[in-house]
Amino acid sequence: MEAEYIAMSQPAKRLMTIYGLALKFIRMKSMPIVYLDSSAALCAAESEVSKSLKHLYRLEYHFVHQAFVSKELELHWVSTKDQIADTLTKALPKSSFKVF
Predict the structure, then answer these.
(1) Which of 67, 68, 99, 62 is nearest to 84 (CA)?
(2) Residue 24's domain spans which residues?
């Protein structure tokens, strides 16, 4: 769970930067959404920082939690079968590639 929690922070920061730029050029009413397949990391990001994550002293790792609390970012759980990023990061059978 800790690795997924930390891994969420970098894409979320980049997404927030792109969203900020997009707001300057077009009107957007929706918030950026981060999809993740770790329900434990999702719960940790949505709730107060748990005791198991207190040792992560670097504030950048808790960026997702702060953005979620201030309603700047939405978090959605997605099933591992439906995770599009897996096609780029894992060795999957051909049938999985045909779905995407």
Answers:
(1) 99
(2) 2-99
